[in-house]
Amino acid sequence: MFIVMKRCILLVITVLILKTDAGLTNFETSSRDWFNDLFRDDLDWKLHRGQVTNRHGRGNYLYLTTSTSNGKSAILESRILRTPKRGSCVSFWYRISGKNPGELKLKRMEMTGTKIRTRKLWLREGDQGRAWNFARVSIPPNPHTRYYQIIMESKLGSGRGGVVALDDIDLDANHPCSNSLEKRGFVVDFETKVTAMKNIRYGDHFDWVITKSEARSSGTGPAHDVTSGTGHYLHLST
After folding, report:
1. Residue 16: strand, helix, or coil
2. Mean pLDDT of residues grouped by 10 in the chain (238 residues)?
3. Phi, psi at residue 15, to the nearest 5°?
4. Which of 193, 132, 128 has the alpha carbon at shortest distance from 157?
5. Cα(127)–Cα(116) distance, rounded to whole angstroms?
6. What pLDDT is stored for residue 190 in this prediction?
7. Could you tell me where the beta strands, DSSP code E, fall in the chain?
């Protein structure tokens, strides 16, 4: 109850100075859009330079390591945002590497009355390689709440030398993610009705089936989709 009251006070204060614009945070200067959580985690994301190097080969990025903090969680939260009519879009670069480094997930948090609700929108866990990876996540609108926050949360694993890092978070708080791909094609993530592509009726033997990771049968198929880690993908089973 005390934490809820504190968050309500912070919500009122922040709403008074809300801005409607957003943009790129590359951590080379102080961020006005992203902050370490004050109450709900075990440690803070650290501004770091070197060792991993940011995705450009130099400069700052956010960093966690299992070497000193295994099993603990760290939460990065956006400033409080007004809920747009059409949704929002956030893209970022991440690195999760090493033996049992843990997980990174993105959630939307909103307050309705005195209740705080969260919804997981994206997840990656385990070693994703030593390279920086790109992610883009659509934040769906909710007509039942006026304000929301985006939460980037990592729970570190038990491996030694594991790394979780973030860089170049780009937030468009007023528009959903575009389905265009550099104006040369389209992106289909299979989360809504597909109109751009379809199974052919004749000339093949099977149809592609839209599957969700939780609904895998007979132990076949990937554990997660590539878009969010919690969504749908196309699947064939022999």
Report:
1. helix
2. 49 43 73 86 84 65 85 91 86 92 94 84 92 90 87 90 91 77 54 70 80 63 70 77
3. -60, -35
4. 128
5. 31
6. 74
7. 24-25, 34-36, 46-49, 60-65, 73-78, 81-82, 88-97, 102-112, 115-125, 133-139, 147-156, 163-172, 209-212, 232-235
Which residue matches tokens 């991993």?
Answer: 52
- Whether the model pTM is above 0.70: no
* Strand, coil or helix: 185: coil
Place of tokens 């992106």: 187
Q: Are residues 95 and 126 in contact, defined by beta-carbon separation less than 8 angstroms?
A: no
In the prediction, which pLDDT does 128 show? 92
Structure tokens at 64: 């966690």
Q: Answer for the pair 238, 227: CB distance below 8 angstroms, yes or no.
A: no
Farthest CA pair distance, the chain: 64
**Burial class of residue 194 (count of CB atoms within 10 Å of its CB; 0-12, 13-18, 19+):** middle
Query: Cα 58–226–187 angle (5° rounding)?
Result: 95
Residues 6+ apart with CB under 8 A from 81: 18, 22, 88, 147, 148, 149, 150, 173
